[in-house]
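Quick one, tokens below:
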């Protein structure tokens, strides 16, 4: 059964002001925190916040870091320099980029490869189109305008950290020299 709270106007105004102050002090205040502070039910607290005060909760967008105006300007200048350099076709041939992705092992056997000799009364064996095996590994790939320059699977149990990447980059450098 929903709670019913009847307040006179001065009490109501005082409660609204209190809730408004709570939300101003901490924007992450929950309905339960509001209700506990005012000694009222959670639903009444929700109604005051959303209906009476007209508030709504929005989620923030996470960004990896905040750039200063100077840092933003430096990036703009850097990108403009790259665009100028990019007018020369040879410039793009010197760029190598990389990516990493998770790879799963699949049983690639075709229907014909999976054929079995069976007796006359056997039912036709069934096989899933692709059976994902429990093998999951990370693949690191570097490529340029011509295609793949270097690829490396991360061995099972290895962590991909700075030390591991230094080894990968060393092998990449040996490959391109």
């Amino acid at each position: 059964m929903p709670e019913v709270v009847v307040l006179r106007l001065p009490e109501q105004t005082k409660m609204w002001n209190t809730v408004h102050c709570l939300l101003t002090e901490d924007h992450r205040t929950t309905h339960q925190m509001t209700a506990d502070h005012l000694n009222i039910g959670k639903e009444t607290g929700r109604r005051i916040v959303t209906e009476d005060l007209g508030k709504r909760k929005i989620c923030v967008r996470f960004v990896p870091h905040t750039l200063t105006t100077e840092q933003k300007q430096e990036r703009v200048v850097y990108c403009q320099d790259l665009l100028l350099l990019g007018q020369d076709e040879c410039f793009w041939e010197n760029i190598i980029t990389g990516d990493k992705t998770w790879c799963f092992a699949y049983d690639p056997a075709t229907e014909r490869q999976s054929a079995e000799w069976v007796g006359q009364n056997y039912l036709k064996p069934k096989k899933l189109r692709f059976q994902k095996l429990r093998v999951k590994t990370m693949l690191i790939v570097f490529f340029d305008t011509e295609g793949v320059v270097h690829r490396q699977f991360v061995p099972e149990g290895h962590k991909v950290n700075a030390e591991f990447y230094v080894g990968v980059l060393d092998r990449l450098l040996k490959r391109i020299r």
